[in-house]
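Extended Data, record DNA replication and repair protein RecF
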Amino acid sequence: MTLRRLDISQFRNLSGVKIKPNTGVNLLTGDNGAGKTSVLEAISVLSVGRSFRASRTSAIIQFDQAHYTLFAEVFNPLAQLQPIVPIGISRNKDNEQQIRISGQQARSAAQLAELLPVQLINSDSFQLLEGSPKVRRQFLDWGVFHVEPQFFSLWQASQKALKQRNKLLKYGKMHAVQQLDIWDQALASYAEQIDQLRQAYVEKLIPEFEQTLAELTFSDVISVSYYRGWDRQTDCLSALQDNRSRDLALGFTQAGPHRADLRIRVNKLLAVDVLSRGQQKLVVCALLLAQGKLLQKLTGKQCVYLVDDLPAELDLEHRKYLCRVLEKMQCQVFITSVDQDALAECWSEHTPLSLFHVEHGKVTPTHRS
Ligand SMILES: Nc1ncnc2c1ncn2[C@@H]1O[C@H](COP(=O)(O)OP(=O)(O)OP(=O)(O)O)[C@@H](O)[C@H]1O
């Protein structure tokens, strides 16, 4: 999947932006506060329907405006009849959102995500190592969502069952035993299926991750292990039933698929406690790149990479290795940098490269110097 056209209107400081990105590398340069990250943010909103850096829409809509509008043409090489898919999203200050795909109103943002898989590498990516299990679970589920068509509905059903169970635990107390039995069974059944999909995905992801680490010349052994959210020795239904009296006392479900995690370690210690900042960046990049490679291998789909401030934390050699991996994957990349020269030497002359200068919310194509 590649973006062939991108229009941004009344989004942060960007307005009247109309660009035709390259199918390869798109380098956005400009001073601090120019609007580079906002371009990545707009692409991410087109993929998942929400921003990666603001929970309030009013922060994203341009000051004094009523709504923002984003439009793109996505090239889908897997669709033979209509490979160009127009997508658009607009949102107003009341948080009302309209998503259109090929001229039709879309039911949910999940349809956008399916069409335009996007991976973001930015300073928040470190959360994959230092953040809560939720961050790693979201990372894992991004991958499973894109390769297993039945995953999303199972995940939605398990969330519903979990919510009902938690409600009973909190308010129903002991009178709700019969109803708890029903939700235990429902949750456990979805949990076992989700667990199998997640486990199978991690088994395929690990070799891609290890190979990517090697391509980035990272020599320490990093182990990635999957924790499914309840004791390995038992099934989910037994875990829920065994925990019931404690769950009732606490008012929520302690174990289950909502507690799954990936444990990323070096010499049995958490990677975040051992690795330097630059090494951590390489590890998180390897995880995110491995997901893109696996997506390509299993579905033929390519994801778009958004890389905010690639030079940060990485020396020139490692920047080059990272760029080489991205080049080899032949996916579309949008990269921001304050300093154009920091990335100038990183690309092979055969790589399609477009340069854009961002200034006061305007994006202008420039030439390779
Ligand atoms: N809702 C909004 N309306 C108008 N302008 C906004 C809004 N929200 C943020 N801005 C401004 O838009 C710009 C967004 O900057 P952005 O983070 O995209 O810059 P950047 O080029 O990535 O900068 P840096 O190199 O410092 O990371 C900032 O100048 C900010 O003050």
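Summary. The chain has two domains: 1-117+301-369, 126-299.
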